[in-house]
Amino acid sequence: MATTIAASCALEHPSRVRGLVLASWYELDGYPLMEDRRRQKHAMTFAELHMKMFEVARESGRQGLSYRMRREGDAWLPILPTAPEARERVIRMMSSHSPEHYIKAAEFYTSMPNLVPRLKEIACPVLGICGEEDPSPDRPELLAGMAEFQQVWIPGSRRFTMVEAPSAFNTALASFLARVA
């Protein structure tokens, strides 16, 4: 979600953005393309997933949602970290919201614009960061037309590279920030 917001900001307010970091930016092709791609690999689209999370959170509360994510997490979200500590941290984060949050998230996913055709308009340097084991990895070829694009792949991690491999993530980020500062 944050990727779409950040890219939209860079497109609409280029004078305010000196550099753009896209962490796991698979969603830039928007709705319905993103959901169609997800449907090919996963049991549920993001909108369906968030509606399921709403139902569980409403019926069983945040603890019930955490429990279900621990039990069925790979079926729901195959992007969850595999390392137990990182996995638990992400599950706690994702189940920490009120039930209504998940409805809003589903609505957001179904309203995401396709930003790919406009990405070449972004003039600032762009860093893409994604885990090598992400089941829905970034597609750097979509950003091939950008002047200053760099993709970094974080070994041994999936979607949540900043949680799964914070040292590697922070090294890539620090290097990029030093370049655009």
List the helices and strands and how they pair.
Elements (H helix, E strand, L loop, with lengths): L1 H11 L7 E4 L9 H9 L4 H31 L7 H11 L4 H11 L16 E6 L17 E6 L6 H4 L1 H15 L1
Parallel strand pairs: 1-2, 2-3
Order of helices and strands: HEHHHHEEHH
The first-to-last residue Cα distance is: 25 Å
Number of strands: 3
CATH architecture of the largest domain: 3-Layer(aba) Sandwich
CATH superfamily membership of the largest domain, which one?
Alpha/Beta hydrolase fold, catalytic domain
- How large a portion of the residues is in β-strands, by DSSP E? 5-15%
User: What is the tally of helical segments?
Assistant: 7
Major beta-sheet overview = 3 strands, parallel
**Poorly predicted runs of 5 or more residues:** none
Outline: globular
Q: What's the CATH C level of the largest domain?
A: Alpha Beta
Number of domains: 2
What is the CATH topology descriptor of the largest domain? Answer: Rossmann fold
Query: Helical proportion?
Result: 40-55%
User: Rg, please?
Assistant: 17 Å
* Main sheet: strand order: 1-2-3
Average residue-wise pLDDT = 93
The assigned structural class equals: mainly alpha
What would your notes on this structure say?
With 181 residues, this protein is mostly helical. It has 7 helices and 3 strands. Helix 3 crosses helix 5. The protein is globular, with a radius of gyration of 17 Å. 34% of the residues are buried. The mean pLDDT is 93.
Notable characteristics:
181 residues, mainly alpha, Rossmann fold, 3-stranded parallel sheet, 7 helices, 3 strands, globular
